[in-house]
Amino acid sequence: ISNLNGVIYVDGVRFAKTGAGIQAAINFASSAGIGTVILPAGNINITSRITPRSNVCVRGQGMDKTTLTGGQVFDYMIANIDPNTIDNVCFSDMTLDNASTTNGSILRLDYVTNAIIERIHFKGTLGWELYIGNASTTNTIAVNSDVLVRNNLFDYSSSTLEQFLIFDSKNITVENNIFQGNSAISGPGLGIYQNSDYINVKGNTFRNETGASLYYSLSTNNINITNNWFLGNWVGIEGANLADNGAFGWQEVNGLRVENNHFTGNSIALQLGATQGAIVTGNTFEENTNIGI
Asked: Is residue 50 a contact partner of residue 77, using CB atoms and an 8 Å limit?
């Protein structure tokens, strides 16, 4: 077994360069207390779901160097949907390409704590590119916490869904990512929904999104949106009105802060929606063609 200093290599010998081989490496690392699974450069065809395990990180050779490609129609390329919480997981340094399927999403984490998603190129899906949370309108508690999503590229999509969805989660940081080119007007770049609390969105670039680049529903709290760039979108930031999202409850958004962002060339820059106690300060609005705020 390729195992050196707490690392397992998917090298095509012990662990095949397939989805099943990656899963076998993850399972072995979890049982043996080995912290990292290293994927090779090149394309790996994924024909069944990969399930993360606690205390295991999966790392490729870099964006567009290691590519996992969805090879058939299934729900998610990588997912933990089991209600048993997993802890301390990460995926990094790869491209996840689901463009060859006719539906399905890419990466979903339900019931997870202490997760890192970084330096991933999410590419071409008709579903969600990244999904953090459990989309149950009857939930009253957060099922995910302490997740860091940084330095990723959420790339062109024709989905009517969010490129990145946060639902029933708390203490989520979305930092230094690029969201671009979702071509469906009903598909936001980043969507923040029901029971999400302490969501920090900072240093990201949202550009050329046909719909809202960032959307938050009712019944969310303590969303901090700081130092982002909103460039050439239909809507930069959109908050739900009281008539929206009735399935998610009717509570106005509390503790919203929109600070030091740049809105340039959008049709509508900032639409606050139903909020209480919002702070909007230090933002720059330039050449937005319809409404600034």
From this structure: yes
Q: What is the pLDDT of residues 84-131, one digit of tens each?
A: 889 999 999 999 998 665 567 899 998 899 999 999 999 877 788 999
Which residues are bridge partners to 79 per DSSP? 108
pLDDT, tens only, 241-260? 877 755 556 688 999 999 99
Query: pLDDT at position 73, please?
Result: 47
| Contact call for residues 245 and 222 (beta carbons, < 8 A) | no
The string of pLDDT tens digits covering residues 178-199 is 999 877 666 789 999 988 999 9
In what helix (H) or strand (E) does residue 26 lie, and over which residues does it extend? helix 19-32
C-alpha separations of 57 from 134, 189, 251 in Å: 22, 26, 37
**pTM, 2 dp:** 0.93
- In this structure, are strands 190-193 and 169-175 parallel, antiparallel, or unpaired? unpaired
Q: For 270-288, b where at least 16 C-beta lie within 10 A, e where not — what string?
A: bbbbbbeebebeebebeeb
Query: Is the CB of residue 206 less than 8 Å from the CB of residue 214?
Result: yes
Mean pLDDT of the chain: 88
CB 80, CB 108: distance < 8 Å: yes
Phi and psi, residue 92, nearest 5°: -155, 160
* Alpha-carbon span 121 to 223, nearest angstrom: 25
How would you classify the pairing of strands 164-167 and 144-150? unpaired
- Token pair of 34, please? 């080995």
Q: Which two tokens stand for residue 292?
A: 């600034």
Torsion of CA 271, 277, 283, 289, to 10 degrees: 10
The CA-atom distances, in angstroms, between 115 and each of 57, 229, 239 are 9, 25, 27
